[in-house]
Write a structure and sequence with these properties.
38% of the residues lie in helices and 19% in strands. By secondary structure, the chain is of the alpha+beta class. It has a single domain (2-43, 53-294), classed as Jelly Rolls, CATH 2.60.120.620. The structure holds 2-oxoglutaric acid and fe (ii) ion. The site of 2-oxoglutaric acid has 8 residues, from β9.
C-alpha cells in the first residue's frame, strides 16, 4: 500500500523541478518522511486551513519582547562566532553563531516546541527534530542585497520547515522577511524557471518576472515583533530577507525535519557532538544518513 502510494507520488514528481526530483527521489527524502510517519504512529488529523501546509508561511508569537531580549543576550554570551570564510565567501553583512550550550538553548526550544508541537506534528504527520539551529546577526544595510536577501527557495526536501524567531523587533531594526504564496511559487517555477536559483541568478524585482508571465503576485509580510517567529516551507515558498537599516537584526534560525521520535533526545546528542550548527544548505548525500542521527 505504502509502496504503491510512493510510486504514484514519484510518477507525479518526475515532471517537477530537477531539485525536487533530486531530493524526493534520488536522495530519498520522500521515503524517509513516509518511514518516519509509519514509525511515529500519530493519530491522523484533518488538514487545517490555517496550518503551515496550507499557508506556506505563518507568523506565531512564542515569547514576550522582554523574554526575547533576554534570550538574545544569553545567546550572544554563549554563542560561538562561525568564521564566515569557512562556509560562505562574500558574506560580509552579518555574523553566525553556533549554539551548543544545552542549558541556554533547551528552555528556549521547550517553549518554542511546546507552543508549536501540535501544529508541527500534524504538519509532518510524524515526530520531528531540529536538524540545525544558529543565531544570525544581520548588520544594518551597507551592502546591496545579495543571497538570502534576493528572492529564492532554499534547496532541500519539500517537507522541511524553517523557523526564524526574531529576537529583536521590526521597530528596532526595520529588517524583515517577505514571502509569496505557494501557488505563485509553483507558477514562477514552471513558467519562469524561477525557484531554486543559484545565488548569482537571484533577483530583487520578482514583480517584473511575474508580470512578464501574467502571474498576479500574492506577497506576504508582517512587522515582526521581538519574540515572534515565522514558520515556513523554504523549498515551497519563494522568500527573501529585507536588510535592517537601523540596528542589527537578530534571529534564531532553525531547520526542522521529520523524525521517528520526539526532538529532545536527538537535540541532546547533537549538542554533545557539537552538531546542529549552521548548515549552509548542507544536506546528507542520502536521507538514510539521518536514521543514524535519530537512532537511539
Ligand atoms: O534573513 C532572512 O530574513 C531570510 C533568510 C532566509 O532566506 C532563510 O533563512 O532561508
Ligand atoms: Fe532562504
Amino acid at each position: 500500500m505504502i509502496l504503491h502510494r510512493l510510486e504514484s507520488y514519484y510518477r507525479r514528481i518526475r515532471g517537477e523541478d530537477k531539485v525536487v526530483v533530486d531530493f524526493e527521489v534520488n536522495k530519498g527524502f520522500a521515503l524517509y518522511a513516509k518511514k518516519c510517519a509509519l514509525t511515529s504512529k500519530l493519530p491522523t488529523t484533518k488538514p487545517d486551513q490555517q496550518g503551515i501546509h496550507k499557508l506556506g508561511a505563518k507568523l506565531v508569537t512564542v515569547f514576550s519582547p522582554a523574554q526575547a531580549k533576554k534570550i538574545k543576550e544569553d545567546f550572544l554570551r554563549v554563542g560561538e562566532k562561525v568564521s564566515v570564510q569557512n562556509f560562505r565567501a562574500n558574506l560580509d553583512y552579518g555574523e553566525f553563531y553556533n549554539l551548543y550550550d544545552q542549558s541556554t538553548i533547551l528552555p528556549v526550544f521547550k517553549q518554542i516546541f511546546g507552543t508549536l508541537d501540535q501544529e508541527l506534528l500534524s504538519y509532518f504527520n510524524s515526530y520531528y527534530f531540529v536538524y540545525s539551529w544558529n543565531l544570525v546577526e544581520t548588520f544594518p544595510a551597507t551592502n546591496p542585497p545579495a543571497r538570502s536577501f534576493l528572492w529564492h527557495c532554499d534547496k532541500g526536501p519539500l517537507r522541511h520547515l524553517k523557523i526564524l524567531l526574531y529576537l529583536n523587533g521590526f521597530d528596532e531594526h526595520q529588517g524583515n522577511t517577505e514571502f509569496i504564496s505557494k501557488q505563485n511559487t509553483v507558477d514562477l517555477g514552471k513558467k519562469a524557471n524561477y525557484r531554486f536559483r543559484k545565488t548569482d541568478m537571484r533577483l530583487l524585482d520578482i514583480d517584473s518576472v511575474a508580470a512578464q508571465h501574467k502571474i498576479a503576485l500574492d506577497k506576504k509580510s508582517w512587522k515582526i515583533n521581538a519574540g515572534q517567529a515565522i514558520i515556513f516551507e523554504p523549498a515551497q515558498v519563494l522568500h527573501r530577507g529585507i536588510l535592517p537599516s537601523l540596528n542589527s537584526r537578530y534571529l534564531l534560525s532553525c531547520i526542522l525535519l521529520p523524525s521517528d521520535k520526539p526532538w529532545p533526545n536527538i537535540f541532546e546528542k547533537m549538542c554533545l557532538n557539537k552538531q546542529g550548527g549552521y548548515h549552509p544548505e548542507v544536506w546528507p548525500a542520502h536521507a538514510r544518513a539521518l536514521t543514524h542521527l535519530t537512532a537511539a
